[in-house]
Amino acid sequence: MPQNNVPTIDRDQLIDIVRNLVSIPSVTGDEKQVMDHVAAFFDKVGIDYVVSANDPKRPNVIATIGNGNGPTIAMNGHLDTVPISDPDRWNTDPLTGVLSEDGKRIFGRGSADMKGAVGVMLYTMLALKDEPLNGKLQVHVVSDEERGADFGTKHILSEIESGRLDRPDYVLIGESSQLKVRNAERGIFGFNVRFIGRASHTAAARVTGINAIAMAARGILALEGDIDKEHPAVGKPVISVNMISGGVVSNVVPGECTITVDRRTIPGETDQTVLAEVRAQLDAVK
Fold first, then answer.
1. pTM value?
2. What pLDDT, on a 0 to 100 scale, did the predictor assign at position 181?
């Protein structure tokens, strides 16, 4: 691919592309509207694309430019976001894409993770679409990154393996990395832990009751904290207890409590080794 004659960047156009993406709500599971917007963008600028989905409500858009006489480079980015937990705590409308006064930041849900990067990818396709690329440049705009990628990148990989989509020679993933090149990523291992106590009336809490929420609290404190290991490419593993469910009414000692744990793994760890560590930590506070 050519390294000279790079088109001048139209900063205002790039900002508009990103802000338009930010303005469309796309919480994981509800990505169709933003993906339709991406498809309309490619229609407008005359770039070929295909839509690939194992759920029509959660599509992925794959666009391609270039002549194919060389390697294929694919840029991969997701447009699903986590929910807006408390809109009142935002200083700006999270679905507006507000440009900061100095023009260096865009504030809005997904601007950093990762609509900003996808906007750059869309602009790159637009800027290079008429250049004589000896090869192909693709962008894989995907759904479902935040919750496991079954409807997004994993689906794309299965389509590539089956031959229904072309296999790229190189893939650039635009997740935030402080502009450092990284060739690895932490894995995801999620699990639930159920604590079994003994239900009773509050009046008998210290006689016959065993409070499962109190048991869970000890377990949470045992699990939460820094993990003393590290990998040079991805840093340390992370564990976070992110959900808790227990109790039925206010005057009954809870007999059960379940916590949901998100564990990010590093190369060399397996589900089995992580579970062994978790069991040891929980056994220590029984």
1. 0.79
2. 86
Q: Are residues 99 and 239 in the same domain?
A: no
Evaluate whether 285 touches 195 at the Cβ level (below 8 Å): no
- Specify whether 17 is located in the same domain as 91: yes
25 lies in the same domain as 125: yes
The conformational region for residue 235 under phi > 0 = left, psi -120 to 50 = alpha, else beta, is left
Q: What are phi and psi of 46, to 5 degrees?
A: 75, 40
Q: Tell me: do 32 and 148 sit in the same domain.
A: yes
DSSP string, 230-250: -BTTTB--EEEEEEEEE-SST
Q: Name beta bridge partners: 259.
A: 193, 244
Residue 185 φ/ψ, nearest 5 degrees? -145, 150
Structure tokens at 182: 């990284």
pLDDT digits (tens, 9 = 90+) for 51-60: 999 999 999 9
